[in-house]
Design goal:
206 residues, alpha/beta, seven-stranded mixed sheet
Length: 206
Amino acid sequence: MHKLVIATHNQGKLLEYRQLLDDLPLEVISLDDLGITVDAPETGRTFAENAQLKAQAYAEMTGLATWADDSGLEVDALGGRPGVYSARYGGAGLSDPDRVRLLLHELDGLPAPQRTARFRCAVAIALPNGSLHTVEDAVEGLIAPAPRGANGFGYDPVFLLPDRNLTMAELPPSVKNRISHRGKAAHAAKQLIAQILGQMPRCEQD
């Protein structure tokens, strides 16, 4: 059995990753399981850089293989904003609906062809020996003129998938998890983990 740290305090995200990785010889643990409260730096200019910074920082702290991700929304008409600041768009104290309203205000009056956007996710896996592996994926779409759907979170209610004429928030969770940027990047990272298991430190036997 191998140990893999998921660099998150989000129990929902941890559960998703445990389910994704449950057929691999892994003990998946969180920062909370290890009593780690220190926040790793997220000073990168890209999602990949932020994921790598977090993975490397926690791998050094724990001496264990570490999985970290970073994701967000890029809107072409806004020059790629909010990008790596997606979760902090508009400043501190705003709720998800507040950030959605701000986004829609900035795009007010733009026709659909100019509302192109993408969700992007990067997953980095850092090993204690210093090696670092990164995968990225994205899903393309448009920013809808108004929120639709009750599933999902963040910008999901205004991220429209033109081929389905549904927003991310209108998709059943099982479909979203399969086609989303995070779902696709996570599955690619799982394949990567399977390839490098031999380099990962084993759990001590009882």
